[in-house]
Design goal:
By secondary structure, the protein is α+β, with helices and mostly antiparallel strands. It folds into 2 domains: 30 residues; 134 residues, no CATH class. 21% of the residues lie in helices and 43% in strands. It contains 2 helices and 11 strands, in the order H-H-E-E-E-E-E-E-E-E-E-E-E. The protein has a 7-stranded antiparallel sheet, with no helix packed on it. Strands 2-1-11-8 form a 4-stranded antiparallel sheet, with no helix packed on it. A hairpin with a 2-residue loop joins strand 4 and strand 5. The longest helix has 29 residues. The termini are far apart.
Length: 181
């Protein structure tokens, strides 16, 4: 009689345990976990890619969402450096700001609606462009010295002349991909 009661208790305990475990499994699979969802959204990794005219990836770098990169070039009229800064987004690239040393033909002289202009350390910065591009092309300049500015682990940037990726006069396409190319 004692063995029969113990066996019944074990079966009831096992059924209850299985119900709880099934419920936990269901919740883990189908219910989003807010803290995990926020963590993955903030640390999402994207692939910044540069593709040549033959559709060959000539440069790729794994970057987190919202990482910034710049393109520096010598302005054709002002003959001074201009930097355009972009952020990496899931759906493409976003022009954030332009930095240059002095006013000249073809350079912005006043901010548009929603933009700000700052004068610091001999530089003029216009921020707030927020212009979105799925991709964009840059023709490697013969005189412009186009240079890619990439983030390092600290606050400095690695410089990569675009002429090392493709000959002068050729076009390079800048884009973002969600998986490794």
């Amino acid at each position: 009689m004692y063995q029969k009661k113990a066996l019944v208790r074990v079966r009831v305990l096992s059924q209850n345990t299985m119900t709880v475990l099934s419920l936990l499994f269901f919740l883990c699979i189908f219910a989003p976990c807010p803290s995990f969802a926020n963590q993955t959204r903030d640390t999402e990794v994207l692939y910044f890619c540069i593709v040549n005219q033959e559709d060959v990836v000539v440069y790729t770098k794994e970057l987190p969402k919202n990482a910034m990169f710049g393109i520096r070039f010598i302005h054709s009229v002002a003959k001074s450096p201009v930097e355009e800064w972009f952020s990496i987004q899931q759906d493409g690239l976003v022009l954030q700001k332009t930095v240059y040393n002095d006013f000249g033909a073809g350079l912005p002289y006043q901010p548009e609606a929603g933009q700000t202009m700052e004068f610091t350390s001999g530089h003029i910065t216009i921020s707030g462009y927020n212009r979105k591009f799925q991709k964009f092309d840059v023709r490697v300049g013969r005189i412009a010295e186009h240079t890619l500015l990439l983030p390092k682990e600290n606050t400095t940037y690695e410089e990569l002349p675009l002429a090392k990726l493709s000959p002068a006069g050729s076009a390079l396409t800048f884009t973002v991909r969600k998986s490794h190319p």
